[in-house]
Amino acid sequence: MQKDFIKLCLFMAFCGFTLLSTACSFKERPSDDEDNTATTTKITITRIDGVIETLKFSAPMEIDQIGSNPLNFVMKDLNNDNREDLVLLNSAVSEEDQAIRVLIRTSVDTSDDPNEFFENLVVLKTGTDQRPQSLIVEDVNGDGIQDLIVSHPVADSISFWEGKLSENQFSLANTSVEIQVGEFPTSLAAGQFRGTGSFGIAIANRSSDNVFLIYDILNQQSTILDGNHGVEKDPLQLVTGDWNNDGCLDLAILSGNKERVNIFKNTSCSNVSENSAPQEFTFEKIGNSDVGEDPQGMIAGDWDHDGLMDLAISNRIDDDITLLYGEGEGIFVRWDVRVGDGPGQLASADFNGDGVEDFVVGNLIDQDLTVLLSNGDGSRPGTNNQRAYSRAHIASGSIPAGNRPAFIKIIDVNGDDRLDILLTLPFEDKISLLLQE
To answer: In DSSP terms, which residues pair with 392 in a beta bridge?
Structure first.
């Protein structure tokens, strides 16, 4: 009973249900490069080369009727129509409201009602006290159809839902394969860890301080990375990338307890024929990189456009994001960039087509979004005393309170060749959509 209560507390804290004290101190927000009206947000920057750029977003539009506490989502083309559909997890406390939802992208590209962009196709109840948390949408079994992997922290398990496709109509199997993993699994990562022809899943288990590596999900075969291998306490998030530039898929593990990233290189990478038996994955720790206080989210990309993979981590207490610039061989150089109050999840994309990634960060205390727009040359913060990013804050939802953003996705929703912002608002039971104009 005590163990279940501790898990429930962890789950609620992780999902952002912790009540903010009225005694919290709110820091004065630094000046931004923005011009906000009631209907739009405009971001204007002057790049190092003197070019003035403007980025404008519409006021938030909201997709509702998507169930209670929409938390995590993934977008993939499920029915081969070249439109990205949406798979959403309802991570509610009530067992009746715990579900997986599949929303299929419609043919509508222009509408004042964002609900017309998607239609509910599948709603699957996940079962007693499953509380889905993290999600992967990939072709797990190699049949050319997208499948689902979902983590369930309270149940110490993950579930595999097989996808079905008939005449371009997507569906899911009525039952799932349940696999017991470590305690309180939160983050998932997947990829071809042994090279072409292989597929594996990594699961971060926060309470048991380890990472499960499943190399044969159908036969439930796995190995474990733990403290003996260098995994530090409270592994709260995983991302994959090639940290040492050897062409193999490596792992980065964010330790909430130590407030740093554990860097692991893949030592089992090789081409695997399609008919070969699955083989276990092996990793070797090659370094640590410190981040800020109370890290929340982590993503990977090439921020300075040098061909080496970098990392970005949001730090809730420090009100900034840590940018770890890869130097090769698992070595990273750290720079911190200020955002809003209480940053949580983050995403990156090239909004203005200059070839350099920009950032969107969800602020849990400010209950809005910070957009960091690159200066266009890929320089690192502080290089030659020049600013690498211009910052603006934009509303995450249509009302001034209760819009604490959770997961964020940057994608062209309406097919106008401009990147838009999608994010979940768990407290409002909605998805917010900001269209770039």
So the answer is: 371
Residue 34 has pLDDT above 60, yes or no: no
Residue with tokens 């554990």: 262
Q: Please, are residues 436 and 418 in contact by the beta-carbon 8 Å criterion? A: yes
> Considering only CA atoms, which of 249, 161, 245, 240 is closest in space to residue 204?
240
> Tell me, what DSSP letter sits at residue 115?
G
State how far Cα 1 lies from the chain centre. Answer: 32
Reported as type and span, the H/E element at residue 2 is helix 2-14
CA distances from 19 to 33, 71, 100, 214, 316 (A): 31, 17, 26, 36, 15
**Count of CA atoms in the C-beta half-sphere (13 A) of 111:** 16
Closest alpha carbon to 140 in 126, 159, 167, 120: 159
SS3 5: helix
pLDDT of 37: 47
- Distance from C-alpha of 156 to C-alpha of 20, rounded to nearest angstrom: 28
Phi-psi region of 225 (alpha: psi -120 to 50; beta: other; left: phi over 0): beta
**Cβ 50 vs Cβ 378: under 8 Å:** no
Pairing of strands 389-395, 368-374: antiparallel
Rounded CA gap, 199 and 147, in Å? 13
Q: Within 13 Å of residue 276, how many CA atoms lie on the same side as its CB?
A: 14
The answer to whether the pTM exceeds 0.70 is: yes
Query: Token pair of 198, please?
Result: 């292989």
Mean pLDDT of the chain: 85
What are 189-232's pLDDT values in tens digits? 999 898 777 789 999 999 999 999 999 888 888 999 999 999 99
pLDDT at 20: 33
Q: How far apart are alpha carbons 213 and 286 in whole angstroms?
A: 18
In terms of average pLDDT, the best of 7-11, 35-39, 279-283, 299-303 is: 299-303
